[in-house]
Amino acid sequence: MKGMEQRKSSIEIYRSPEGNIELNVKLENDTVWLTQSQMAELFGRDRTVISRHVNNCFKEGELDKSLVCAKFAHTKKYGRHDGFEQVVETEYYNLDVIISVGYRVKSINGTRFRQWANSILKQYIIKGYAINQKRLDNYNELKEVVRLMSRAITLQDQVSEGEYNGLFNVISDYVYALDTLDKYDYQTLLIDKTTQAEPFHATYENAMEAINALKEKFGGSKWFANEKDDSFKSSIGQIYQTFGGEELYASVEEKAAMLLYLVVKNHSFSDGNKRIAAMLFLWFMEKNGILYAENRHKRIADNTLVALTLMIAESRTEEKDVMVKVVVNLINKDNQ
């Protein structure tokens, strides 16, 4: 779990409907955590079976161990003597691993636990960061909302199954840490450290070629990418809009952010607006050579882009400038 912001952990009690399973579940870094022993109890399997499935999900490339496994310190009884304790580190596995193992052992308790964990994490979001109830007072709050929404989306209950799969199919290759956000404050957000060189110019024609390629690759309903009006053509033109002979969106990053915003908000297509917006955002960055940082890391995380796309969809018109600045600060040259 390198690079993740450490937050105060808490313990939630999970009880099975039958009452025969009770687990102390660690809640930290916006997810829930269990040990292999706890998973063995949850799924009613021997620990060696759980260990084999955990190792297989790493060997098969389904999950990256460095992202879903962490060591947490806790105290336990030392030897046979009462009153003596020692601090030990134990490996814990997050919800992604728990769900994977649950599928592999075909346990109904995996589904029950996922639903319970989803409920707990939703409460965590609602109590701490009610994005739809009030304006965000500072950018640190916005950063946490992005992180928490990312977790909620991975639980598949924030969006439909089709939209979830479509969004992640488009951006599953773009993995990068959220922690570069830590230096930014909502009250002082600026657009800087951006890219002026622009080797690629988006047009309605080449954008539609990219959209049609997306449709051929991932499929979709017969209404996917079906234009309802001329608003998409207008969106492409708007990112190159000028005033007094100067571009309103002078950098590649600003144009990419505006393209994402406009395609999401204009609802130009009968189906697939968010998927198309996310794809065009990455397409525009890649064509202009800013998708990857100098160290070849991608500049924006997959979950972050999904969360931002959905947040843009839910944002109010007067929040446009804030949303664009957030996106720019996630993809500018500070993200190396």
From TrEMBL:
Q: Where is the Fido domain?
A: 192-333
Q: What is this protein called?
A: Virulence RhuM family protein
SUPFAM superfamilies from the entry? Fic-like (SSF140931)
Q: Which residues form a coiled coil?
A: none
Organism field: Segatella copri
Q: Which InterPro entries match?
A: Fido, Fido-like_dom_sf, Type_II_TA_Toxin, Virulence_RhuM-like
Q: Which domain of life is it from?
A: Bacteria
Q: Which Gene3D superfamilies match?
A: Fic/DOC protein, Fido domain (1.20.120.1870)
